Amino acid sequence: MGGYAxxxxxxxxxxxxxxxxxxxxxxxxxxxxxxxxxxxxxxxxVVDRIRSAMRDVGAQSCWVAxxxxxxxxxxxxxxxxxxxxxxxxxxxxxxxxxxxxSAMASERAARLDAGRTxxxxxxxxxxxxxxxxLDIPVDTIVVTAGTEVxxxxxxxxxxxxxxxxxxxxxxxxxxxxxxxxxSTSDKWVVVATGAAGDISTRHTRQGRGLDEVxxxxxxxADRVDPVSPSASRGSPPPVRPPVSRTVALAPKQRAELDxxxxxxxxxxxxxxxxHRVLQQGLRIAEEQAARERTEPYVIDVEAVDLDGVTIVxxxxxxxxxxxxxxRSAAPDQGRNLVVLGYANGYLGYLPTRDTQPCYETYAxxxxxxxxxxxxxxxxxxxxxAVNTREQPRRISA
Length: 397
Description:
By secondary structure, the chain is of the alpha/beta class. The chain has helices spanning 44-56, 86-105, 173-182, 210-221, 254-263, 272-291, 320-329, 359-363, 370-387; strands spanning 13-14, 20-26, 31-37, 61-66, 111-125, 134-145, 148-156, 169-170, 188-193, 199-200, 243-249, 297-306, 309-313, 337-340.
């Protein structure tokens, strides 16, 4: 199983089934598919494979995102990403195609709106000793047919890690709990993960089992209020291909790691649990430093505009504050902008210039300041996606 650094056990059973969801957005010229899979990560190799298969069934563009559940099979989720295990890639491609065919068969005229809910006491900064819980910004893309809400894409910027490292049963974890709490017989729900790099339920959860997963899922669901369709919006704009920005990020060098070790973590992080986590991060950093990588890591940051809702896809673990920076710098202060993490590849943590030494900075394969570089690319992509809106055409979802 993947996710936790010291985990060695394989999958033994299932608490709740892992799922692959596909939502398609189409007009008479272009179809965009969003795939969300209950996996620890998706690497570029399997993303390319699914995109090719999607084109064969009529989806000209496609994103693939992982929920980052740590109760899933290992998928090559190491810093920088590795090859996807073949058996897992086969199953993911097959499930994505089956879900896409079902989505395309049920397309109907629809409109999109975005809403945001601040959820108190859900989560907080995970590697700070006894922090106060944050008001977690949960974004919702609501799909309406006429005045009826027919579907929702919920983006939670929280690590889905309620279940512990010694759990060996697969589960969608927190995202599954949110899905179960929000889904109804007449409304589908997809739950993705946003800028969750430094956010978890470590200091807010009251247990480590499926009952706590469902409690937190219901806590969030009770506070999400689907937006109503906007009035007098005119005809929907066309569905256009996503906009991409290629970013080259410098690998972290030995000197930077040595400096971080000398500085040490802030003293307020000095409890036993966080100390163990820091040691895990240092071990990962030492393994990376031994490889002496000099060539940059190259990733694609993408944005797509769908009926006035702009979605940005980041192939790694972005800190919550950086996700909020993208929103505030984007057009209209990001009122209808949603940041999706763990999408279209997996690089790892994306530290900022002033991030204090912590597990995330140790385990990251890239140099400090990479987070700001990715944010700038995301803002540019989002602005171009917004600016490419054309004359209205019919949209279905």
